[in-house]
Structures are given as structure tokens and as C-alpha cells.
Amino acid sequence: MLVLGGLNAPASALPEDAAPASATAGCSQPAGLGTGNHTITSGGQSRTFRLDVPAGYDPSRQYRLVVGLHWWHGTSQDVVNQGFYGLKPLASNSTIFVAPQGIDNAWPNTNGRDVTFVDDVLRTLDSAFCIDTGQRFATGFSYGGGMSNALACARADVFRAVAVLNGAQLSGCAGGTQPVAYLGSHGVTDSVLNISQGRALRDRFLRNNGCQAQQAPEPAAGSGTHTKTSYTCRDGYPVVWIANDSDHQWDARDRGQSQSHVPGEIWRFFTSLTSTTPTPTGACTATYRTVNSWPGGFQGEVTVRAGEAPTTTWSVSWRSSGERVDQVWNGTATSQGDQVVVRNAAENGRLAAGGTTTFGLLGSGTSPAPALTCTSS
């Protein structure tokens, strides 16, 4: 069975080519939490995170939020000790930083539990602080990089961008079809997670973000240098790839340099992005309607419409709130945690510009009114 539910509706009207970004409930209220360690309940378990509130926090100002995810056997305190991967010294009190703590110092994201934990942390921070919802970012190294990738896959509608440092697909990738601004950094001689694993993560978002194919040169082992490739992608969804002559380390540095170039590259990438994310030109749309309902069940139908360009494939995703789906036809459905994705069937992926197709579903419970996200290629 799959779980079906609804996304939050836009809080305010924006131009048709932009997704909403808004302030949180904590605006104009005194800070609800202070710098330090905090505990919440997530998925029935006690979970902790470390919070760093900017000096002189002003509740009338919307702040950027950066989530820093630790490596395997690391801790949230280690992230703090590393200056949130070197970003805090660059932030000049413009940013709230948070470092969640993984169970057993890892991020297996079993049944989506770690994505749900991050959701719960964000809800806690949204009620406690004034945060620009279009300026949420995530970064992490190694296992933390894998978890950052999982957030890019499952929460592309929540995070403006991610920076994956020597990562691999270690924490799953529920969804994984929506565009999100993406920076990857990896060592060409990484002896723990081969650079090919980092390239695979990058390539997913090259596809999702509609990037043009191009060569991405990488430095030779022993060269003591790094290379940076900035891809040409859909407006608002850049992809940057940094290959370093280094092993398994997040703070790679060129020969003769005392400081790493990686934090500066991440910070420039994050701060270059506007709060509102343009909808990709030609993207598809999806609408839901209840065909029939009865006590304890319902039948629904989703119409998928191509945008200005034809499609070869499409997918529709939404977030659950407890309803259950027992059957889907004219599509293939998967779920992890509260994220549900329906991809086209073999016969209905190709749509002409403006063309439509439908898929149906049968469910248990009360018929939902989900807000759907449609992506196509």
C-alpha cells in the first residue's frame, strides 16, 4: 500500500514563473530557542540537534537556514567544531545553522525516518525563528553527503539547494525527479567513496535540472589542483561540480594553500540563489479530482498536462498525511516515508506540448485534496 496526502498550499500569490517563498510563524516573535543542544520527538524517538543562532538575532528579519549533516561516526558537535563545513565564518550573522544528530552517528534513513526527523527539526525552527522559506540549504560530508542527497531527492520543494561533499547514495533517494540547485565536490583519489559515486549523484540532477551536456574536466592525481564545472541548466536550478586532487576529505585544498577552497565555493553558490525558484520552462502540471467516495474509501484521478515542450517521461509527487492508496493504474507508484511518486506507464510518457493523460487510484480513508508537483523530461 502507498500513503497519500497533501502538500502545503502556497501562502501568497507570486508570478506564474515562480514558486512561493515566505516568512515563517516565528517572525516578529522573540527567538523561541537559543544556541545549544535541543531535543524533540520524531517518529516516536527522542532525537537531538545542535542549533547556532546568529548574534543580535532580529525577529523582524528573515534569515537564511543551513542544515549541516555529520559524517559516519561523526556528531552534530563535530559539525559545529568544523564551523558548519567552514560556512559559519562566512555568514556574518546572516544565517541560522543547525546540525541534526543521526541515530548511532549515521544516516541510514530507514523507512524515511531521517528525512522525517529533518522535517520535524524544520517545523520546530519555523515556529521559533523568522526564516526565509526560500533560503533553506543542506550540506554534509560522506554519510552526511548521502543524507544531503536524500533531502535533495525527497524535499526539493523545501530546500533551495544542497552541497554534497564526497557523498554517495547511502541514505536512499525517495522521489528524486524534481529539480533542485546542486553542488557536488569530490576527491579524484577518494579511497572511501569513489568519485564515480559522486558523479552518479550529480548526473541525476543534471537530468532533473535540464542541464546541457558538457565536458567536466577533473585534475590528475598528484596535480595538487582542483577543477570547477558550472553547467548551463534551467533558470534557477544551477549545477556545479568541483573535482579535487584529494582523498576522502571535505576541506580539500590545492598544493601550497593553507585554506580549503570548498567553503567559499559553497557559500558563493548558496548566496547566489534567489528566494523564489522559477518553474522550469515547459514543465508539466498535474491536477487531482475525486471521482467517487464512500465511507472508508475513495477513487481519484490525476490529469497530467505537458507544458510548452513535449515530454518523454513525467512523474507526479506529493506528500502524505495518512490516507492510503491500494491501487494505481496508468502509472507506476512508489513511496518512502511520506513521499509518494507516480511515474508514467510505458504507454503514456510521451505527450505533445499541451497534451494530457490521466492515471487513476483507489484508496482507503477520506478522499484527500493533495497539491501535486509534476516534473517532466
Automatic annotation (TrEMBL):
The keyword Hydrolase applies. It comes from the Bacteria. The keyword Hydrolase applies. Pfam families: CBM_2. Residues 277-377 form the CBM2 domain. InterPro entries: AB_hydrolase_fold, CBD2, CBM2/CBM3_carb-bd_dom_sf, CBM2_carb-bd_dom_sf, FaeB/C/D. PANTHER family: FERULOYL ESTERASE C, PTHR38050. Involved in degradation of plant cell walls. Hydrolyzes the feruloyl-arabinose ester bond in arabinoxylans, and the feruloyl-galactose ester bond in pectin. Active against paranitrophenyl-acetate, methyl ferulate and wheat arabinoxylan. Belongs to the faeC family. This is Cellulose binding domain-containing protein. It comes from Promicromonospora alba. The lineage of its organism: Bacteria, Bacillati, Actinomycetota, Actinomycetes, Micrococcales.
